[in-house]
Structure to design on (231 residues):
């Protein structure tokens, strides 16, 4: 069974600085997708970034980028120039290509606090 | 375009009561999902639907039922509420499923407490 592990329950960063959130996963599959979701205090789940496993190039979305290490099964999220609005829970998620439709496997989350 | 809406926002049930959590999306998405989020945990898939009239079980379906009579609506039914069903419930939708690996858009959630 696939599992997703986020080893940092809580992190904090000063505004304008850079922070990296860790995520590791376990799978025997070769084709899959990885996601980072943000859940602010409003509880809405917002997709931050996604990565297809077959792509070697790391995904980037504005201030958010990932470091995808397929052999190490690692998928970390880097937030540059942190803003107060980045304060939220961040969930790493895995979806197996070809498995159950929509069966996202989530990690337990990392609570990020951005301090002024 | 309201996206994914859920009602109610909060609900307290007594053990053995029943209720329906409503979910509606106005994006003409084919795929809809129900998740639950327990404290300190990620989301777990309860049920999903790939289109009107078609539903299937997710990771934790016991104690729940769903129906999908229209593209827009995907209600979740709890028949005999138990304390273990105390959780926050999220509905989500996406245009495509795995073939297009489309983004799932989430509703604001329903906080359910069973006493």
């Amino acid at each position: 069974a696939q599992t997703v592990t986020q080893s940092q329950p809580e992190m904090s960063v000063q505004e304008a600085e850079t922070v990296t959130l860790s995520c590791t996963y376990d799978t025997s599959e070769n084709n899959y997708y990885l996601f980072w979701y943000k859940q602010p205090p409003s509880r809405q789940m917002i997709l931050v970034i996604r990565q297809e496993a077959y792509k070697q190039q790391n995904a980037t979305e504005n201030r958010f980028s990932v470091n995808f290490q397929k052999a190490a099964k690692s998928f970390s999220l880097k937030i540059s120039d942190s803003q107060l609005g980045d304060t939220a829970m961040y969930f790493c998620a895995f979806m197996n290509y070809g498995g159950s439709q929509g069966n996202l496997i989530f990690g337990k989350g990392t609570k990020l606090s951005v301090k002024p | 375009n309201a996206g994914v809406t859920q009602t109610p926002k909060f609900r307290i049930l007594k053990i053995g009561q029943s209720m329906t959590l409503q979910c509606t999306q106005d994006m003409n998405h084919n795929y809809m999902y129900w998740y639950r989020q327990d404290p300190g945990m990620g989301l777990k898939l309860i049920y999903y639907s790939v289109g009107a009239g078609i539903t299937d079980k997710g990771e934790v379906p016991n104690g729940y039922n769903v129906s999908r009579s229209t593209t827009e609506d995907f209600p979740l039914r709890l028949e005999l509420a138990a304390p273990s069903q105390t959780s926050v419930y999220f509905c989500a939708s996406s245009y495509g499923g795995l073939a297009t690996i489309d983004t799932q858009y989430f509703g604001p959630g329903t906080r359910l407490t069973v006493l």
User: Anything to note?
Assistant: The radius of gyration of chain A is 14 Å.
